[in-house]
User: What shape does this take?
Amino acid sequence: MSTAADDLRYLSLALSLGRRGQGGTWPNPAVGCVIVRDGRIVGRGWTQPGGRPHAEPQALAQAGEAARGATAYVSLEPCAHHGKTPPCAEALIAAGIARVVAPIADLDPRVDGRGFAMLRAAGIAVTTGLLAEQAARDHEGFFLAREQGRPFLTLKLALTLDGRIATASGDSQWITGTEARRTVHAMRHRHDAVMVGAGTARIDDPSLTVRDLGVTRQPVRVVVSRRIDLPLLGTLARTARDVPVWICHGRDADPQLIDAWQGLGAKLLSCDLQGRQLDIVSVLRALGSAGLTRVFCEGGGALAATLLAADMVDELVVMNGGLLFGAEGRPALGAMGIDRLAEAPRLSLSDLRRLGPDVMTRWRRPTS
Assistant: This one.
């Protein structure tokens, strides 16, 4: 008989396994599953790249006959609909699982409690609510895509102690050290896409890939550029057929530039305007409609300010290096039109840690 401590242990493991898939399962959620019988783990699985196979069938295949009478710990309600694969709830029933422990319901309208109902109707005991807050955070991007039509957005800033991202001449390599930069690459890998503004793409000529981690899967590289005024001989253009490049542009963009980038292998997403700029909500919804659930934004200052002003930043990650550039250095954020303190976005600290000589802080919207 499982104890409360057992349930906590095995469900924590299922959540941890699910996080292994973050960044590679979109548009599906990154789910983990652990099957336990008589106090022994007999099967484990997590959602594979591209969103299938799902976690439950993998764990069941590993468990084999040992799944009969066992408990399945799943980091999200098992799916109940027929898509490209049969419902995971049916697979658990057919395998003879006796009990399912899952933290929260799947908010996809095709599921949303139906998976739990199928399990209970088959006589399987279902326990919910344990580690619900952690599970909701792990699946936040998947839920936002379904509820608001946009991905979860993490904004990363690498700053000096006085809030500058470069010297007056534009020199910025490197404000932070090796450990901080390696952490940023790991963050890229846990997101579906890395996003920058047109200015960053022009000035820095970035590759926006994950490096030095021994991984093969790369995130989609997104550039927000109303006029598509991007170098056709730059790194992104040269590598667009090797690693996906998506460009979010205005509906008034030059058709010849659209054709040129499509010819290079890029995907072009037409977005609405807000005044003379791209409507950032339209940009994020276009990315959500294309299947993305988690986006990692690395600037520049104008795009970062626009996202913050529109309240579209779900998590802010700040890497501080021990440097001082002074007032002539380039600020981290563009103009936000804030005249009073009450108008400024106020975030809540969720994590603080040292990375070699640097400090990383994570900030989120206040919970109350």
Notes: The mean pLDDT is 94. The radius of gyration is 22 Å.
